[in-house]
Design goal:
Largest sheet of chain A: 7 strands, mixed
Number of helices of chain A: 11
Structural class of chain A: alpha+beta
Strand order of the largest sheet of chain A: 10-17-12-16-13-14-15
Order of helices and strands of chain A: EEEHEHEHHEEEEHEEHEHHHEEEHEEH
Distance between the termini of chain A: 36 Å
Shape of chain A: globular
Oligomer: homodimer
Radius of gyration of chain A: 22 Å
Chain lengths: 401, 401
């Protein structure tokens, strides 16, 4: 997992309570075009505000990430700490501060311990290695059960460009990231703490990267939910070193970024705090994709639906009831529901009795699709969600203790 | 617990899987003015559709309620079953069918076993008793842990009118009931399976009852949430026998209905499936009550906030983050948070360290207030919610099995 022009490093800086790698650095050989999308939450962490300002005003040289502390709701002290951390890295790299983008994840309301990062800056820079992506990916995890990395390639005239995406996120996951500089007015729908960094050696300027990243995140990260809660820190950044010589069109670049982001978004849901299932909620037959998205989102975030998934219970009544309160108009008497291909509700009525047992069996699978058909219109959208079980309560009822 | 003009009865009809009282009847001596509000869910159970038609076209003589089967998503067969049930009661009472209002709660997607109700109609009518309110209240429960009854009185010129409210509900609770005949176009925000029946001996016509019931439910049932999921069956009905001779103004009637509905709404939340705490989320300082309501609702339905309440963890960062994704504009740097009166966040920053421990101690109480102050505006609203803990998962991950 190498991408020409990029090196990675990770160290233990003592920020995570339980110890382990918690400080990660990603560096491009030269300052390069970059773009980012950030949480649309009105409450935004210090690193989000700083990274946004910087990515809009300068090419990027490095991304500094810490886990264990979100540096959110920390006021001026939080801003000072984030600035001091990135300054230490800029000095160690010998680059302008504005080229170092910060990102943080962890507990809200505690100021980032900048001195721990300053103390590790030289060690971190010394450890940079083109093969360091996995250590970087491990260091940014919080409640995640596994490392999240995805790659794709883009071939053009005998040249090959590589995309490497590294992601974290398992709780407070309902991303709603939007283009830098355009937010948060008006605030959009919810997201949560997910961080994702994509490095690539395609040739692309910041404007093209921004346009394609927004399109890719809208159908990947912005279409998954663990718990419907949008974080103060959600951040997706892409940097393009240009080393491959491949010059993609907007469509090609959007496609490649989507290919990298989709498995990462899915991996987050699959790793949803305490989750055992990742389920695609596909809603179709409505007038527009927008309507389908609204219904799919309501179902994907319904506690009753999510406990039904945990219980492997083909309770289609809860699915229809949730669709019915989503705010989108449809005729309940034409609604059908399929679980992993088994029709359990047709024209708003129960399917044959045997379907129920068969569907419940299918719900034991790690991953499957619930399809809700609400008419004959062309609108469709898929939201990916997970189950709400005892594991989620275990993780969240005492997160800080 | 008697109200002049009303009698009650309850029997075991074999509708609930686990047995026990599950069929209840409430009868007024004469057909009397009545009003109702019903779920704004687009998917509406057969009894909701029938009760709505009837209450808009006729005075009411009786309310027939069954628990264990919601008769929702049951199509024409469900309608036929609901009509057959109320016909049996009308025949036993000797009144027109249109004067019998049905209500159902329980599993969605199974047709109501009308024959079990027909078989018990005579027994039910024979058992009617002016002291039967408690048996009625017991028979309508499903996952509830306790009976929900409240009363109030209204004095006027030496006369006294009585209000008796009987309610059920513990899960799929996020009521969004609205006036009969005005729905569901456009569908509003969510509610859930709650049933509430208020009987009173005030003198009031159906129009006055409808106006005051809508006002009272908007600040009581429509301001509580267990799980954010609105039921297909939510129903609140009021019948006024007129026997007291008390003729209330609209303000007096709204006040009395609110006094009856508020403790019932609170009791539902306190009894939220698996819940151990009922918490008032008061949001103030915004431009309007509407804005405050939107923020309070987002906080009251956030899984992360609700697990925080279960964990007795004064995690104010989650509260602010949820406010930030609610879609309402405010300045995070002026936000303050109080838990049971303890300030744990001031101007968007942590209060002194000792506050955290004190607030966590207060969170052990069964009931308390979380106050979120987001500015200096006059807008305020209180939403009541409960914790999301292991109990909710136990109840819901295998409800039908």
């Amino acid at each position: 997992m190498k991408v020409p022009g990029f090196r990675f490093a990770a160290v233990e800086a003592g920020i995570k309570k339980r110890g382990g790698l918690d400080l990660a650095l990603l560096v491009c050989d030269q300052a390069s075009p970059a773009a980012a999308v950030f949480t649309r939450n009105l409450v935004r962490a210090a690193p989000v505000v700083i990274a946004e300002e910087r990515v809009l005003s300068s090419p990027a040289r490095a991304i500094l990430v810490n886990a264990g502390n979100a540096n959110a709701c920390t006021g001026d002290l939080g801003t000072i700490a984030a600035l001091a951390s990135t300054r230490a890295i800029a000095e160690a790299l010998g680059c302008p501060e504005v080229q170092v983008l910060p990102a943080s994840t962890g507990v809200i309301g505690q100021v980032l311990p900048a001195e721990k990062i300053q103390a590790k800056a030289a060690e971190l820079v010394a450890a940079l290695d083109e093969n360091g992506a996995e250590a970087f990916a491990d260091a940014i995890l919080t409640t995640d059960r596994w490392r999240k990395v995805a790659t794709t390639t883009l071939d053009q005239s005998g040249l090959r460009a590589t995309f490497l995406g590294i992601c974290k996120g398992a709780g407070m996951i309902h991303p709603d990231v939007g283009g830098a500089g355009k937010l948060p007015q008006p605030p959009g729908p919810p997201h949560a703490t997910m961080l994702c960094f994509v490095v690539t050696d395609v040739v692309a300027d910041a404007a093209l990267l921004a346009q394609c990243l927004e399109a890719a995140t809208d159908v990947t990260f912005n279409a998954v939910s663990v718990d419907g809660d949008t974080s103060t820190n959600d951040t997706v950044i892409v940097i393009a070193s240009g080393k491959s010589g491949v010059t993609p069109t907007a469509a090609e670049l959007t496609q490649a970024l989507t290919e990298v982001c989709r498995p990462l978004a899915r991996s987050m849901v699959r790793d949803g705090e305490g989750a055992e299932h990742a389920v695609d909620i596909t809603v179709r037959g409505l007038a527009s994709d927008k309507d389908a998205r609204q219904v799919a989102k309501a179902i994907a975030t319904s506690p009753l639906v999510k406990t039904t998934i945990a219980g492997k219970d083909a309770n289609w009544g809860r699915l229809l009831a949730t669709a019915g309160r989503s705010g989108v108009s449809f005729q309940p008497t034409v609604a059908s529901v399929f679980i992993d291909g088994v029709c359990i509700c047709k024209n708003g009525l129960p399917a044959e009795a045997s379907a129920d047992a068969e569907a419940s069996l299918r719900m034991k699978k790690d991953e499957y699709v619930i399809e809700v058909v609400l008419g004959t219109g062309p609108g469709r959208f898929t939201y990916t969600t997970c189950d709400l079980g005892h594991g989620y309560i275990d993780v969240n009822a005492g997160y800080r203790s």
